[in-house]
Amino acid sequence: MNPKTLAMAQGGLHQEPVRLALVTAAKAGPVSPARRRLPWMLVSGLALTLTLMVTFGLVSHPGLLVAATGAGVFTLISWLRQAAIVRSDSAGVSPAHLTADRSGLLLVTKDAQAERVFSLLPKFGFSLFATADRSRLVVALTNGASSLCVGADVGPADRKRLSWLMSHAVTACREDLAMAMQSTRGPVMLVDTTSLLRLIDLMTQVDATSFGRVMLTDNLGREVVLERDRLLTSRCTIRLDQPLEWRGLVFREGSGAMGVEYQGTWVRQGKSEMVLVSLMAGDVRQSIHEIETRTGGWPDAMLRQDAVLANGSPAAPPPVEQRVAVDRLFMLPLRRAIDAAHVEKRDSIPGDASLGG
Fold it and tell me: Comparing C-alpha atoms, which of 214, 55, 58 is closest to residue 129?
């Protein structure tokens, strides 16, 4: 993949720092045509009624007509101001925003307080995720100490210019992406598509090799790093430019209501062997199946690949000494990288009955 091509996805590079306005969900729907006509009808009806009352002597002083009409106009103006507020809320512009530069990202709240939410120093990586229907694109930033997910909703008008990025995005369930985008500081990290592209441009300017790199830590705080040619963990280092074996698996620990389901990726290369383990994520295969049913076929090749990679065979819990814990959102990107290497897949794992081989 050409990093410069990625940076040029919008048609040009952007200067820094970059301001990214956060978008919120609409608080109210747009005002309907019937509702817009209602105040005019009320005021007109009131004026007509009072005019008739004056004409037929039912109102003794014409000044009452002026006062009543003025009250109606005041009511109309107040309603229009309220409607404008509703439309402003529906536009979904949050008072908070992100500011990104070569050092990282700041969250600026409505009271102008800035807090660093992600650092690009000394090193970082980013991955792309998308929902199965390709209506949301998310940039997942990692640096080993923290992660940050910033997304955008993709409408029909944006599909064409984002098609190249979508073709390299890993499929994830909408619920998992929504959870990942929810900031611990409060705001949801949702921006418009232009802002998201500007963020991607900046990331590739800062580090042209950052796309595809994943920098995590396991449950003991030890590094789990995916580079283009290797996967480094505390258990072992797997070279992605040399032959290896891998298999997806699912297992359960505990019994009854206390039982917990896990997903795992068993990898072996020579004498090195480990199992990447995480909690079960949302079922990507179900989301992809729904899209297949709706469209009558596979929308793109990457969906087909992700549906295959998300599969896991039931297995016994792997030995604790082989486990490497990872964030469940990144299990599928790690499998993609492993699968793209010089791979010999196995339906069973030879020589290790504890893994169900």
Answer: 214
**pTM, full prediction:** 0.75
Q: Treating both helix axes as pointing N-terminal to C-terminal, what angle do 331-339 and 301-309 enclose, rounded to 10 degrees?
A: 100
Backbone angles phi, psi at 352, to 5 degrees: -145, 80
Is the pLDDT higher at 303 or at 27?
303
Query: What SS3 string covers 111-162?
Result: CCCEEEEEECCCCCEEEEEECCCCCEEEEEEECCCCEEEEEEECCHHHCCCC
CA distance 186 to 182: 7
* Structure token pair of residue 181: 């985008």
What whole-number distance in Å separates Cα of residue 25 and Cα of residue 311?
34
Helix axes 284-295 and 301-309, enclosed angle (nearest 10): 150
Whole-number pLDDT of residue 191 = 97
CA 3 from centre of chain:
21
pLDDT 10s digits, 305-354:
999 999 999 999 999 999 999 999 999 999 999 999 876 655 544 444 34
What is the domain partition of the chain in residue ranges? Answer: 3-24+93-206, 33-91, 218-355
DSSP letter for 62, please: T
Cβ neighbours, 10 Å, residue 302: 18
CA dihedral 307, 201, 178, 32 (to 10 degrees): -110
The DSSP element (H or E) to which 8 belongs, if any, is none
Instruction: Determine phi and psi for 99, rounding to 5 degrees.
Output: -125, 125
